[in-house]
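Thread: quick sanity check before group meeting

JM: Hey all, I'm pulling together slides for Thursday and realized we never actually wrote out the predicted structure for the chain we discussed last week. Dropping the sequence here so it's in one place. If anyone has concerns about the input, flag it before I start.
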Amino acid sequence: MKRFPILALLSTLAATGIALAQPPPAPPRLYSVRFTAGPAWDAAKSPNDQTGMREHSANIARLRREGTLVHGARFGELGLLVLRLPDEPTVRKQLAPDPTTANGVFKLQIDVFSPFAHGTTAYLVTPEAITLRAYLDAGNRHEPDAVAALLAPNVKWFSLDADKLSVDGDGREALRKWLTGYYKSLPDVRSEFLSVEQTGAFLAVRERASWTAKDGTPRSQQAHGIYEVRDGLIARAWYFPSARDPAPNPPKN
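JM (edit): ok, ran it. Output follows.
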């Protein structure tokens, strides 16, 4: 079979109307945008009365609606936006409708934002979330009786894997006995909730468990779970398959 040079092949595809695959767009990155008082900031006025603040707030609301805004905060005399966008020119384009930089009310600085720890600032204080955190704290103290006191008598613990649903724990006493052996086999195991979200009686968590393996190396894994909390007790829990965190790199000599 005759082989066409690559340029001839591309010309043939274009002539026949066959669409060529476009290069994938640049993946979005995180950028921090720090706002500090500019030369036009009027100390005699409140922040909301500064020139252009209505448009400033409207642009932030738009970024939130469109899913571009990851995080927004004020601390000290600074304002911070964390945006998910492909590059800095796009960041500046998204900030263009906000007049407070052009009019000198704010000075801004844009930097690549590289988080090294993830979590949530949405610290729930609902009765259900308080019960769940008490359960986590009791587990990290390795107190099976205290954990069991936060479980409903007929509690059920489920594992979900693709189309398979299995029961890992059935009843408060069965789980208390299992926890006793679990803590003995992993004497330094601890868990943390990296995120907690709630809808009614159901709380969705992303959990990380950490422990030391028999060979002395630290291990950890993460999983998503859903807890049903009713009348101050955990009635049911569903967990999806866990994913092992990468092993830490050994120290270099």
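AS: nice. The radius of gyration is 26 Å. Residues 1-7 have pLDDT under 50 and may be disordered.
JM: adding both to the slides.
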